[in-house]
Specification:
With 166 residues, the chain is mainly beta. It is 9% helix and 42% strand. A five-stranded mixed β-sheet has the order 8-1-2-10-9. Strand 9 and strand 10 form a beta hairpin. The protein is globular. The two termini are 29 Å apart.
Length: 166
């Protein structure tokens, strides 16, 4: 998404359990920030899938994004009073998922070209587009499509794709 002056927009946020690192996704991928959703556990789901919940008549996976990003992976299972609901396309599929974030998310207007910074070593490189410097502060750009692919690869226990039209 670009503001009136043509600059791309990102939503910057921190994650419970990784509060010393700032993350961002394109503002166009943010469907909504909601109060914590009730989560139903799903047996045999990957460790970073907290469960499923209903959001606007869709059953969506609730991800512990901090646990998914950490390398080596280990369950953190942090909760928060706020969840970011993201909607994005991967290949030809529209995905919706949610994950807890800490309060204080903010929109950023950034230039098309940002200087790169080293990515934190404790984060999985496959789930990161890049780490960039915004106002001299490193911000990790999350690759939600790759996260959705990993959830979809293990999705059998999560049931049919409720985000696709019948």
């Amino acid at each position: 998404m670009r503001a009136e002056h043509g600059l791309p927009q990102l939503l910057s946020f921190t994650l419970p359990g990784l509060s010393d690192t700032k993350f961002a996704i394109p503002l166009l991928e943010v469907a909504e920030i909601v109060k914590a959703l009730p989560v139903t556990s799903v047996p045999f789901a990957p460790f970073y899938v907290q469960g499923i919940s209903e959001w606007k008549d869709h059953i969506i996976p609730i991800i512990d994004l901090a646990a998914a990003l950490c390398q080596p992976p280990f369950p953190l299972i942090y909760t928060s009073p706020y969840y970011l609901v993201a909607r994005f396309a991967s290949d030809t599929t529209l995905h919706t998922l949610a994950y807890p974030i800490q309060s204080g998310a903010s929109a950023l207007l950034v230039p098309d070209q940002l200087p790169l910074a080293p990515s934190p070593l404790n984060l999985s490189p496959g789930l990161i587009h890049a780490t960039v410097l915004v106002n001299q502060e490193p911000i990790v750009l999350i690759n939600l499509a790759e996260l959705a692919n990993s959830v979809m690869a293990a999705r059998a226990p999560l049931g049919p794709d409720s985000n696709s039209p019948p």
